[in-house]
Amino acid sequence: MSAVTTGGGVRPTRRAVALTTALLIVFLVYSLAPTWFLLVASTKNQSDLYSTFGLWFSANHFADNFRGIWDYHDGVFGRWILNSVLYSTVGAAGSTLLSLAAGYGLSKFEFRGRGALFGVIVGASLLPSTLLAFPLYLVFADIHLTNTVWAVLIPYFINPFGVYLGKVYADSSMPTELMEAARIDGAGETRIFLSIALNLMRTGGITIFMLDFVNIWNNFFLPLFMLNGERSFPVTLGLFSWVQQAQTSRDMNTLVLTGSLLSIIPLAVFMFALQKYWRSGILMGSLK
């Protein structure tokens, strides 16, 4: 048995607690091991990287690696970081607004085919984004938008899973009675959405924004297909170009590893800054 019944309710057995704790420890080690490897590897020079134990420190060359990555090729790494911030911030903001608007419409307005449309949206959210990268490239090539900022941003604006979450949050946080009261007071539908619904759905919006931001920051295949100019690369694609360069000319593994470590710092800061919002937002969505 995994639990015993006492006067105070159901209490898990020691075996269940030990098994759960062991699984959580394994999951924690699995999750943190890549970050630990990046932290250790970024302190090594090229020779130590291959001649010393991979999961522990040797001589500290982090300062040299740090300067090298910012100085290499006229500071292109800094440009990649700024590009990632631009793509992630603008893409996530546009996706969040469209998702909340679409979810609000699906939740609060009756129209023919609403159920079928919602089913299509849920089905579309199950498609892997890598499956759509090449078809999107063909479409944007026909309208001559490849290798532009819009070739990356426009696909990010469309997020079926965000629409689903927007509907969930609209169902739970926007009372229909409040909409009726606003209409009686003379408010139009646009004003109701912008002035009332967005404010009440703020927690859900921040949750959608956070998920989109992280997904866009880590996205690789869409920029790989759409962009061919180094100065427009996000940091993920830029580091990949260094890996490709290392296979043909200079060994740049220390710079790649140091850059990978630096690239996760903005995400960590972002997550800590919004943790109180995404915790409550995910809880609200799970309860719904």
Helix residue percentage: over 70%
Please indicate the percent range of residues in DSSP E strands (runs of 2 or more). Answer: under 5%
What is the element string, with H for helices and E for strands?
EEHHHHHHHHHHHHHHH
What is the CA-atom radius of gyration, in angstroms? 24 Å
The class by helix and strand makeup works out as mainly alpha
- Number of DSSP strand runs: 2
> How large is the count of helical segments?
15
Number of separate domains: 2
| CATH fold node name of the largest domain | MetI-like fold
The shape, in one word, is globular
Strand order of the largest sheet: 1-2
CATH architecture title of the largest domain: Orthogonal Bundle
Q: What is the CATH level 1 assignment of the largest domain?
A: Mainly Alpha
Q: What about the largest sheet? A: 2 strands, antiparallel
Mean pLDDT: 88
CATH superfamily of the largest domain: MetI-like
Which regions are unreliable across 5 or more consecutive residues at pLDDT < 50?
none
What's the end-to-end separation, in Å? 31 Å
What does the model show?
- The protein folds into two domains: 1-29; 69-287, Orthogonal Bundle (MetI-like fold), CATH 1.10.3720.
- It contains 15 helices and two strands.
- It has helices at 14-41, 46-51, 62-71, 76-108, 114-125, 129-142, 149-157, 160-173, 176-184, 189-200, 202-218, 221-226, 235-248, 253-273, 275-287, and strands spanning 3-6, 9-12.
- The longest helix is centred in the N-terminal third of the chain and has 33 residues, at 76-108.
- The radius of gyration is 24 Å and the shape is globular.
